[in-house]
């Protein structure tokens, strides 16, 4: 790739590569800090979540230098982030003190399931009691994504090596459309489960900086999925013009990767600040007030 670049292009590639290396070093330093300062019950979960932005930045950098590897790098980032979504839900439960303590804190509380991205417009949906069973279904909502998305991506790679899977061929007769729709549905259910949990614990975990953490997580979802999809659609429709020797799709891929490197670099730096803030300990379950609209807890 570098042989076909002019001087500004080489400078851009060098700068983005340096940003990726800095993001990796920032994450390594943060992982060492977490390993030393955070209790072992939360340590691995927080390291996984902090690794999302550097991993996506690294895969984008590899895809930028080696264009033929783009499919594999995108799949790697997709698999990793599927696991991170499940880890984020588990982190919220851990920050509440674990499942048993969470059930005691919200003994008479209810989950509001009319939330995004699936049911934000369905305000008539009933509020669900917080029990072991409902917690199990929320955890299953993210766990299924962490398991099924790697399986579907592996199936896509197998079909691609056989010539049956063409990413830009979205005809009903091809497998790309059906696999993409199925992955999209699984993604929505996983994000819905995280949204339901966040809506319930955001007030309780405000002292744990859960709101900026959730905002960073949402930015990664939007930038890694929605932004990349929009750019790829523009490229496939020739809205992004070709620039020889790069076709429209190749330019779209380059633009998406370069934007992700810069965005994930910023998120990595901000995450280091957010996850290093001093937290206030949660009050005992008997002293915690419920969210407005819920019944008061019984000590």
CATH architecture: Up-down Bundle
CATH level 1 name: Mainly Alpha
The DSSP helix count reads 8
- The value of Rg in angstroms is 21 Å
Pfam families: Solute_trans_a
Main location: membrane
Keywords: Membrane, Transmembrane, Transmembrane helix
Membrane topology: Multi-pass membrane protein
Question: How would you portray this structure in words?
Answer:
The protein is mainly alpha-helical. It has a single domain (7-113, 126-279), classed as Rhopdopsin 7-helix transmembrane proteins, CATH 1.20.1070. The protein has eight helices and two strands. It has helices at residues 7-37, 40-65, 70-95, 99-105, 132-161, 175-201, 210-236, 248-276; strands at 110-111, 128-129. A two-stranded antiparallel sheet has the order 1-2. The longest helix has 31 residues, at 7-37. It holds the Pfam family Solute_trans_a. The chain crosses the membrane at residues 12-33, 45-66, 72-90, 136-160, 175-194, 214-235, 255-275. It is a multi-pass membrane protein.
């Amino acid at each position: 790739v570098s042989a076909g670049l002019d001087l500004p292009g080489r400078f851009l590639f060098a700068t983005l590569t340096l940003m990726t290396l800095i993001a990796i070093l920032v994450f390594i330093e943060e992982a060492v800090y977490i390993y030393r300062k955070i209790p072992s019950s939360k340590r691995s979960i927080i390291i996984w979540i902090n690794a999302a932005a550097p991993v996506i930045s690294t895969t984008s950098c590899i895809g930028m230098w080696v264009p033929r590897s783009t499919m594999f790098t995108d799949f790697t980032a997709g698999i990793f982030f599927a696991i991170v979504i499940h880890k984020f839900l588990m982190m919220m439960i851990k920050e509440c003190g674990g499942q048993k303590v969470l059930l005691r804190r919200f003994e008479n509380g209810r989950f509001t399931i009319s939330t995004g991205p699936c049911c934000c417009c369905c305000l008539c949906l009933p509020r669900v009691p917080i029990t072991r069973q409902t917690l199990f279904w929320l955890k299953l909502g993210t766990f299924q994504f962490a398991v099924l998305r790697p399986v579907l991506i592996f199936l896509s790679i197998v079909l691609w090596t056989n010539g049956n899977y063409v990413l830009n061929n979205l005809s009903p007769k091809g497998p790309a459309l059906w696999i993409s729709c199925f992955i999209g549905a699984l993604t929505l259910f996983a994000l819905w489960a995280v949204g339901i949990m966040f809506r319930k614990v955001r007030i309780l975990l405000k002292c744990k900086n859960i709101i900026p953490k959730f905002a960073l997580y949402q930015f990664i979802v939007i930038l890694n999925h929605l932004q990349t999809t929009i750019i790829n659609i523009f490229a496939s429709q020739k809205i992004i013009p070709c620039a020889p020797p790069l076709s429209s799709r190749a330019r779209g891929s380059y633009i998406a990767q370069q934007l992700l490197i810069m965005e994930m670099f910023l998120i990595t730096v901000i995450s280091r600040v957010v996850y290093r803030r001093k937290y206030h300990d949660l009050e005992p379950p008997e002293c915690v007030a419920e969210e407005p609209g819920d019944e008061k807890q019984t000590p």
